[in-house]
Design goal:
By secondary structure, the chain is of the alpha+beta class. The protein has a single domain, classed as 3-Layer(aba) Sandwich (Aminopeptidase), CATH 3.40.630. Helices cover about 30% and strands about 30% of the residues. Strands 1-2-3-4-5-7-6 form a 7-stranded mixed β-sheet. A hairpin with a 2-residue loop joins strand 3 and strand 4. It is globular and about 40 Å long. The chain starts with 15 loop residues before the first strand and ends in a 19-residue tail after the last helix.
Length: about 200
Amino acid sequence: MTSGAPAISEAPLGNVVIAPMRRRHLRGVVRIEQQTNHRPWSSGLFAGELALPQSRRYVVALDGAVVCGFGGVMLTGHEAHVTNIAVDPVHHRRSIGTRLMTILMGACRAAGVDDVTLEVRMSNRGAQEMYRRFGFAPGGVRPKYYADVGEDALIMWAHQLLSDGYSQRLAAIASSLEPGLRTAGLEEWVPPERA
């Protein structure tokens, strides 16, 4: 391992639970945000998002009591925007991002949202690959969107979330997760079991 590189956790995923984000999680959320974002959101900004439950859905991945990932969406009528999703670098390669996206897409479906968009760094091929798994496809480029580093953003869209085909896609992703998708307080957002 090189100096300064985080150690990747080899711990099993059996203890990781996806739960609604609460104010008590913000210290852990901001810690991850500061590690993964060049222009991190503040605790106050996240608290403001949590104060908008009619139009926001935020979740955390908990390994025991430790926040190891988080994500959120903003609902705007029949569309939604993934505002952020991040995983503690120590917990990479444990499918935590996939677990978070599965629940967020389920939340969009539960809210009657048919189309979802997001921006992702052009250089972040791993995230783009994960988003493609959820049906996202390129829809344009925002030049220098990440102004702090001068990097373009790839705009991606997923359509027809309310279709039977998307329901099957989400169920297939959920059923592929080992040792399963564990949630607390989010049952209405969990995809149905794959037939």
